[in-house]
Design goal:
Strand content: 5-15%
Number of domains: 2
Oligomer: single chain
Helix content: 40-55%
Structural class: mainly alpha
Mean pLDDT: 86
Order of helices and strands: HEEHEHHHEEH
Largest sheet: 3 strands, antiparallel
Radius of gyration: 22 Å
Low-confidence stretches: none
Strand order of the largest sheet: 3-5-4
Length: about 190
C-alpha cells in the first residue's frame, strides 16, 4: 500500500508540473508568436488612443450612441459568462422585462413587438461586441433626433459598419457596436 501511495503522489506531481505549469507556458508562448497583439487581444484605437478591444463588448447607455447587447457580467472581461437562468425563470423574465421597459422609454416611437431579442437578452459569454442590423436600425430615430443627423446618414453608417457572415456563409450579418459608435462620433455635425 505504501508503494501505491508513493506512486500516486509521483504521478500527481508529474501531472501538476506538466499540465499546471509547462502546458500553460507552452500555450502562452505560442499565442505570443501567432496571435494578434501577442495574445493580448486586438485593440481598437481612436486618435491614437486605445478605446476598446475587438472581441469585447462595451457598455453604451448614453442615448447619443448605439446601445450594445446587454451583459450578464456588466461588461467585465475578467468574469465572462451568461446568467444561467432559463427562459422560464421568474427572475430572468423580470430582468428582460426591465430591459424592454428601459428600451421603450428611451425609444418611444418603437413597438414592443419590433424589439430584436439581442437588445434585451445577454449573450452566453456576456461580452458580445455585435448587435444585429435590426437592433442597430431600431435605434436610428433616437440618435438622429438627439444628434440632429438625418436618419439616412445613420442608416448608411450602419451599412458601412456591417460585417457579413463568416466566410460568407456561416452566421448572420452583424454590426460591431464600438466601430459603429466611433464612426458616429466622426460625423461632422
Amino acid at each position: 500500500m505504501k508503494t501505491q501511495i508513493i506512486t500516486s503522489l509521483k504521478i500527481a506531481f508529474i501531472t501538476l508540473i506538466l499540465f499546471g505549469l509547462l502546458y500553460p507556458l507552452l500555450i502562452s508562448a505560442i499565442a505570443s508568436i501567432i496571435a494578434p497583439n501577442a495574445g493580448r487581444g486586438e485593440e481598437v484605437s481612436m486618435n491614437g488612443k486605445v478605446v476598446g478591444f475587438e472581441l469585447i463588448g462595451q457598455k453604451f447607455d448614453d442615448d447619443r450612441y448605439f446601445n450594445g447587447r446587454p451583459s450578464a457580467v456588466d461588461y467585465n472581461a475578467a468574469s465572462t459568462g451568461g446568467s444561467n437562468k432559463g427562459p422560464g425563470n421568474p427572475e430572468y423574465l423580470a430582468l428582460v422585462q426591465s430591459r424592454i421597459d428601459t428600451l421603450l422609454a428611451h425609444n418611444p416611437s418603437i413597438k414592443k413587438e419590433a424589439i430584436p431579442s439581442d437588445l434585451v437578452t445577454a449573450s452566453g459569454g456576456g461580452l458580445d461586441p455585435h448587435i444585429s442590423i435590426a437592433a442597430a436600425t431600431l435605434q436610428v430615430e433616437r440618435i438622429a433626433k438627439i444628434r440632429n443627423i438625418k436618419p439616412e446618414v445613420l442608416t448608411q453608417l450602419i451599412r458601412k459598419n456591417t460585417e457579413g457572415p463568416w466566410l460568407g456563409m456561416f452566421g448572420t450579418s452583424k454590426v460591431h457596436v464600438l466601430h459603429l459608435n466611433i464612426a458616429l462620433d466622426q460625423i461632422k455635425q
